Amino acid sequence: MTQSTDLGPEDRKIITLARSARARNAVPEGAAVRDETGRTYVAGTVALDSLKLSALQTAVAMAVASGAQSLEAAALVSEADEPSAPDRAAVRDLGGDAAVILLAGPDGALKSSTPAG
Questions:
Q1: Residues of the chain above pLDDT 70, percent
Q2: Is the domain covering 4-115 a CATH 3.40.140.10 domain?
């Protein structure tokens, strides 16, 4: 596990964006991903009757829909102790095994930093 003081400014930024998405939309999770060009995509949990996506799946879908070719990092703000298997798979699909998933609690404190693979 990496301490938040070890994070660079770009990683701290996506955690902050994910945290704000969670709070702004009053959803269980917020997420943000950074693509190969440094662009960020921010999302919250989608819970419609006909469509259910985690925040991280939604952020990855937004990146794909916007033309991202790969991901460098993803941030998830959640009460969970680890990213779900479908979340890891979504990040891995676009970012490969080297993409990092930063998991933070609702207070923004980093819980873990792990490769998507």
A1: 96
A2: yes
Give just the sign of the alpha carbon dihedral 45, 97, 9, 5: positive
Number of neighbours of residue 111 by Cβ within 10 angstroms = 20
CA dist 49 and 43 (Å) reads 18
Between residues 2 and 38, which one has the greater pLDDT?
Answer: 38
CA distance 56 to 33: 8
Q: Rounded to whole angstroms, how far apart are CA atoms 107 and 89? A: 25
Specify the residue for token string 């994070």: 7
Strands 100-104, 71-77: pairing is: parallel
Domain boundaries, the chain: 4-115
| Residues 97, 103, 105: CA angle, nearest 5 degrees | 175
Residue 1 pLDDT greater than 50, yes or no: no
